[in-house]
Amino acid sequence: MARTLRLRDGPPQGPHGCRHRPGPLFRIRLRVRHRTPLDDRRRGSGPPVLHGKRRPLPAQPELSDLTPMDYRDTVLLPRTSFPMRAELPKREPLLLERWRRENLYEQILRARSAGPRFILHDGPPFANGDAHLGHALNKTLKDLVLKSRNMMGFFAPYIPGWDCHGLPIETKVVKESFVRVPGSLIPIKELPSGEFLEAKVELPGGAPIPKGEVHAGEEGIKADDKGFQYERHGPLYIRRKCAEYAQRYVEIQREQFERLGIFGDWEHPYRTMDPAYEAEVLLLFADLVEKGLVFEGLRPVFWSIGCRTALAEAEVEYQPQIDPAIDVEFPLLPESCREVGISEDARLLIWTTTPWTLPANLAVALNPELPYGLYSARGRHLLVAEARAHAIPGLENAPCVRHFPRGEELLGLRYRHPLLPRTGLVYGASFVTGESGTGFVHIAPGHGMEDYLLGQEHGLPPLSPVDDEGRFTEECGLPELVGLSVREEGNPKIIELLESAGFLWAKRDYEHDYPHCWRSKTPIIFRSVRQWFIDVKAFQQEALRAIEEVEWLPARARNRIRGAVESRRDWCVSRQRYWGIPLPVFYRPDGSAVLEPEAIRKLAREVAKEGTDLWYATDEEALARKLGLPAGLRKGADTLDVWIDSGSSHAAVLRPRGEFPADLYLEGSDQHRGWFQSSLLLSVARSGQAPYRTVLTNGFVMDLDGRKLSKMAGARGLPEFISQFGADIVRLWVASEDYRDDVPFSQEILSRISDTYRLLRNSFRILLANLHDFDPSRNRVSEEDFPELERYMADRLRILVRTVVEAYRRYEFPAACHALTRFCSTELSAFYIDVLKDRLYCDAADGTARRASQTLLHRMAESLFRLAAPILPFTAEEAWEALGKKASVHLELFPEEAAPKSDPPFAERWTRILELRALSNEALEVSRRAKEIGKALEAEVEVQTPHFDSADEELLAEVFLVSRVRVRRGESPAVRVRPASGRQCARCWKYSEEVGKTDPAHPALCPRCTGVVQANRSRS
RNA sequence: GGGCCUGUAGCUCAGUUGGUUAGAGCAUGCGCUUGAUAAGCGCAGGGUCACUGGUUCGAGCCCAGUCAGGCCCA
Question: Separation of CA A435 and C1' B74 in angstroms?
Answer without folding.
Answer: 13
